[in-house]
Structure formats: C-alpha cells, structure tokens
Amino acid sequence: MRTALDRFRAVYGSNPLHLLTLVAGFALFAYVVITIKPITLWNPNTWWQSIVVWFAAAIIAHDLVLFPIYALIDRILVAANRIRPAPRTSAVPVLNYVRTPLLGAGLTLLMFLPGIIEQGAPTYAAATGQTQEPFLGRWLLLTAAMFAASAVTYAIRLTLARRSRG
Fold first, then answer.
1. DSSP, res 11
2. Counts of helices then strands in the chain (DSSP H, E)
C-alpha cells in the first residue's frame, strides 16, 4: 500500500487529498455556474457592473497590486527579524504573531473600505437609518483587538516555553 501512495505522489506530485480537493472545488464551481446560468455573470446594460468584470478586476488587483505590497511587507518583517533576531532565550519566534494580525487588519480593511470611506452613505442611511461614521473607529478597535490578542497569545506561549525549559 505504501508503494502505491509513493507512486501516486511521484506521478501526481502531491497527496491524493490535494487531487480530491481540486476535483471537489471544480465540481462546486461547475454546479454554481450551471445553477446561476452563465448569462447572469454579464450585465449587457452596464458592462462594468458585471460579475465577470469585477472578478477579473479583483484577480488583477490582487496579483498586480496587493500581492506585491504584502510580499514586500513580509520581506521587511523577515529582514528586520534577521537584523535584530530574538534573543536565544526565546524559543517562540515573534514573526507570525505580527503577520497574523496584519493580515486580519488588511483583510477587514479591504472588506469594509467602502463603509470606512463612507462610500454610498445616502444608500446606507436609507437602508439602515444609520450613518457610516463609526466604521473607521470600529475597524481601528478591531485591529487593536487583533494585535492585543496576538500579543497575549505570544506572551502565553513565551511563558510556557520558558517554564518548560527551566
């Protein structure tokens, strides 16, 4: 049995679970396209409001703009960690405790940016009877909470690592 798994990995290049996940993802995509009909992806009246256009724009914006930005930020964090590495007494690297809240802050900013910059304020007010003023403050609080939770988690892990060694 082990040799069959090794042969599969040699031919396919990865675990069979990877292939199963890909097949399931493509099956889900096919189901969604068949269910909603491809015609609903294109708005013939206003082309820029089409789902296809927004999807393509999101791919381009991510691959050409956002990915280089957060790859650069990650390189800066890694370089800063090499220049001033953690003391040898620390068994817990700090890098992921900075990456995780940064990623969370970036994703929530991306999701709630229209509300934060108060885009569509009249429509939002008409639909909810509220303003978008608290969005920025709430995003800042959420970001602070993510960094605080990460710092507390790092402190706990550091304390546990020191206790287990000493």
1. H
2. 7, 0
Query: DSSP assignment, residue 117?
Result: T
Whole-number Å distance between alpha carbons of 118 and 130: 12
Q: Assess contact for 50 and 40: CB atoms under 8 A.
A: no
Distance in angstroms (rounded) separating the CA atoms of residues 143 and 103 = 10
25, 36 contact by CB (below 8 A):
no
Local confidence pLDDT in tens for the 166 residues of the chain: 668 888 899 899 999 999 999 999 999 999 998 998 888 888 888 887 788 888 899 899 989 998 999 899 889 988 887 776 555 556 788 888 999 999 999 999 989 999 999 998 999 999 999 999 999 999 999 999 999 999 999 999 999 988 888 6
Reference 69, options 109, 117, 114, 106; nearest CA is 106
Residue owning tokens 């800066």: 76
